[in-house]
Amino acid sequence: MEYPHLLSPSDRLLGEFQKFLRGVRYLTIPRFDLFNDKVKSHQRDIELALSDANTKFMIVLVYTGQAPLSQDISTDVDAFLEEMNDTSEFARFRSLRQSNIYNMIARGSKGESIKADVVLSNWGRIETPYKAYYGQVAASDVASWWEDYYPQLFAPNIRLFLGDTDVNDGIIATLHKEPEKFWYYNNGITALCSTIKKKPIGGNSRESGIFEIEDLKIVNGAQTAGAIAKAASLYPEKVQLAMVPIRFIELEGSPPDFEKDVTKNTNTQNRIEKRDFAALDPEQERLKEELALYGITYVYKSGEIVGHGIDGFDIIDATVARACYQQGIELTVQAKREIGKLWDDIEKTPYKILFNSSVNCIELWRLVQILRIVERELKEIEQNSSGREKLCAAHGNRFITHLVYKRSRDIINSPEIYLTEDETTTIKYRTKAAFVELSKVTETDYQEAYLASLFKNVSKCKDIVEKYFT
Question: Domain Abortive phage infection protein C-terminal: where (predicted)?
Answer without folding.
Answer: 154-301
